[in-house]
């Protein structure tokens, strides 16, 4: 259709050329008229192409004889006399049309290269935000459809070479990264050929998407390997901790129990009572380690949600201090909790476990007879708990690791699995709070827990509950 439109422009161009040459010839010589026809040949060669310019060249020689040379409106010269003129015009038309076609082709190729580069860049940028193979494939097919302005189909199986595939189609393969290959069929619009450049463009886009899928598959494999390694390492740490840290209390329990069984009658009442206390204390110590381990596993589950009951913080503190005083009778526990603190929505059993673990750490790593303080207060919309001891503290280099599972600042020191602080952080974080450790200026270590206080709302809170009960 475009070529016929170019040929349809020949008559108007010839008519305009004759009119301009006649008008110019009224006050110029015949040479000026010849230059008008030459200009028409040059312009038609550049804008209309080779075929229309040859026709204009041929008719220009005839029209020049008929309209511009005397006698007018008749052939006054032999055609052989115009062979040179025709030859010059024809050579000019051929040369200019070839140069113009080459220039247009280069411009078109440059535009296609720019469009391909832009499409590949857009595809690469979109691939970076894809999360899995399905999203990568969907985005890749959408970009291919946009780049070729056509329909893209993922075939159930590859198209055979002798299956009668229309020539206007392009075929490619998309590797999923899991060893599978998806045949892709691109149906080009009517009149658009399956050129080598288009095939290379499709291959480049599919290759880019395939590499993105392979990278995603590699990331998933690496992540799975890391999780497996972490699981194995955690299992090994748990077994090592259980075998090492439970050996001491088990040995004490077995020794005390065997002494009572073998020579219990020979011991005094006070000695037998001491052995029974050893068994009870060491059994409680083992129970605490097992409960810490079980609670840590439970809290690491992403679906876990702590309870949300209205509690007075002084009751939780009192329960934790009572437990600690029974276990660590050689320490002086000092409590400072104001009476006007607001109620807190929390899981009281888990929050008590936090305080028990912090008090246990303070007692284990501070000398007998030293003071352990537990204080509570309010800072804006935060409830703050502080547990301070008079022990040696923790080196600054170890502070970033103290909340890691099974980490102990003094591995060769007192027994323990290194799960207490890890469990504290998990519980406090589950309540939306934060926990930090710091070395105190007067010596010792301070553990600071901040828990968010609920915002007052109508129809909620302890006041509303009291009204309902009343």
Question: Which stretches of 5+ consecutive residues score pLDDT under 50?
Answer: 158-167, 463-470
State the separation between the terminal residues, measured CA to CA.
90 Å
Tally the helices: 13
CATH superfamily of the domain at 306-452: Histidine kinase-like ATPase, C-terminal domain
What is the CATH architecture descriptor of the domain at 306-452? 2-Layer Sandwich
Taken as a percent bin, the fraction of beta residues is 5-15%
β-strand number: 10
Keywords: ATP-binding, Kinase, Membrane, Nucleotide-binding, Phosphoprotein, Transferase, Transmembrane, Transmembrane helix, Two-component regulatory system
GO cellular component, one term: plasma membrane
Protein name: histidine kinase
Catalytic activity: ATP + protein L-histidine = ADP + protein N-phospho-L-histidine
Task: Give a brief description.
With 470 residues, the protein is α+β, with helices and mostly antiparallel strands. The chain is built from 13 helices and ten strands.
């Amino acid at each position: 259709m475009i070529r016929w439109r170019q040929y349809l422009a020949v008559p108007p161009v010839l008519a305009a050329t004759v009119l301009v040459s006649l008008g110019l010839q009224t006050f110029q010589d015949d040479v000026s008229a010849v230059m008008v026809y030459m200009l028409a040949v040059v312009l038609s060669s550049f804008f209309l192409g080779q075929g229309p310019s040859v026709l204009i060249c041929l008719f220009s020689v005839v029209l020049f004889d008929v309209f511009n040379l005397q006698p007018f409106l008749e052939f006054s010269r032999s055609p052989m006399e115009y062979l040179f003129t025709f030859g010059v015009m024809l050579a000019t038309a051929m040369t200019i049309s070839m140069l113009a076609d080459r220039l247009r082709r280069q411009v078109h190729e440059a535009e296609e290269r720019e469009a391909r580069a832009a499409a590949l860049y857009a595809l690469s940028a979109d691939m970076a935000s894809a999360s899995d193979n399905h999203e990568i494939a969907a985005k890749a097919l959408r970009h291919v459809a946009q780049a070729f302005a056509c329909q893209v189909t993922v075939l159930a199986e590859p198209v055979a070479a002798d299956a009668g595939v229309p020539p206007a189609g392009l075929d490619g393969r998309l590797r999923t990264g899991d060893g599978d290959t998806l045949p892709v069929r691109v149906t080009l619009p009517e009149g658009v050929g399956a050129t080598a450049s288009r095939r290379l463009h499709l291959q480049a886009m599919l290759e880019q998407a395939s590499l993105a899928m392979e990278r995603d598959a590699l990331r998933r494999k690496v992540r799975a390997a890391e999780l497996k390694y972490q699981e194995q390492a955690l299992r090994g740490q748990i077994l090592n901790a259980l075998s090492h840290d439970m050996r001491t209390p088990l040995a004490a329990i077995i020794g005390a129990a065997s002494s009572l069984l073998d020579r219990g009658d020979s011991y005094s009442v006070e000695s037998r009572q001491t052995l029974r206390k050893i068994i009870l204390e060491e059994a409680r110590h083992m129970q605490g380690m097992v409960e810490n381990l079980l609670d840590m596993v439970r809290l690491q589950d992403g679906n876990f949600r702590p309870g949300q009951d209205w509690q007075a913080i002084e009751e939780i503190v009192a329960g934790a201090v009572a437990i600690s005083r029974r276990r660590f009778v050689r320490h002086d526990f000092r409590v400072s909790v104001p009476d006007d603190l607001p109620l807190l929505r929390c899981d009281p059993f888990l929050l008590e476990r936090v305080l028990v673990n912090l008090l246990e750490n303070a007692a284990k790593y501070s000398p007998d007879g030293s003071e352990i303080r537990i204080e509570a207060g309010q800072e804006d919309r935060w409830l703050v708990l502080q547990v301070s001891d008079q022990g040696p503290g923790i080196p600054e280099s170890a502070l970033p690791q103290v909340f890691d599972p099974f980490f102990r600042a003094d591995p060769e020191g007192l027994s323990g699995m290194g799960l207490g602080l890890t469990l504290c952080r998990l519980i406090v974080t589950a309540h939306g709070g934060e926990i930090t450790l710091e070395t105190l200026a007067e010596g010792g270590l301070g553990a600071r827990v901040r828990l968010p206080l609920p915002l007052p709302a109508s129809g909620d809170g302890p006041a509303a509950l009291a009204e309902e009960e009343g």
